[in-house]
Write a structure and sequence with these properties.
- The chain has helices at residues 14-24, 84-95, 120-128, 130-141, 148-156, and strands at residues 6-10, 29-35, 48-55, 58-64, 76-81, 100-101, 106-108, 114-119.
- By secondary structure, the protein is an alpha/beta fold.
- Helix 3 packs across helix 4.
- It is elongated and about 60 Å long.
- The N and C termini lie far apart (48 Å).
Length: 157
């Protein structure tokens, strides 16, 4: 186990979430699965309690803690993409597997975890500043999934 990991609270599906992430993103994998050694408020002895996993190189742990806490946009994974094809692949995997679209490149998976599927061209254009960043920012504000061609057009003015 890494010295510092991100711990994500799931109601009961940490293992399913970890397996989905491992199948969807490169440099991702499912590691150790710990089963509860006894009954606990959200489950029974033998239930999956925690799952170690990696998402795009980030070490994580999923905790099946019951329905007390819910995910929100205060935490998100940001995945930088190289082109529209990669953007579409991740977006469609998340949204098409019971997730939901949001605005400006954000979406949620079916477990409520927020994702930012962000083409690198958007990051670069916003960091340039000035009129270019302003045009790109306004174009982005009208999008759900980021449209790389529209971002590139906004960069050019």
């Amino acid at each position: 186990m890494a010295k510092n990991i991100v711990c994500l609270w799931y109601e009961k599906d940490a293992e399913a979430a970890a397996r989905f992430y491992a199948e969807t993103f490169p440099d991702s994998a499912v590691g150790a699965i710990l089963r509860a050694p006894g009954d606990y408020p959200a489950g029974k002895e033998g239930d999956v309690l925690t799952v170690e996993f990696t998402v795009a190189g980030i070490p994580c742990m999923g905790l099946n803690g019951g329905p007390v806490f819910k995910h929100n946009e205060a935490f998100s994974f940001q995945i930088a993409t190289d082109d529209q094809q990669e953007t579409d692949r991740y977006w469609n995997a998340i949204v098409g597997n019971g997730g939901e679209e949001s605005a400006c490149g954000w979406c949620k998976d079916k477990w409520g975890v927020s994702w930012q599927i962000t083409p690198r061209v958007l990051i670069v254009a916003l960091s340039v500043g000035g009129d270019e960043a302003r045009r790109v920012f306004h174009a982005m504000m009208d999008m759900k999934k980021i449209d790389v061609a529209a971002i590139e057009a906004a960069r050019r003015g």
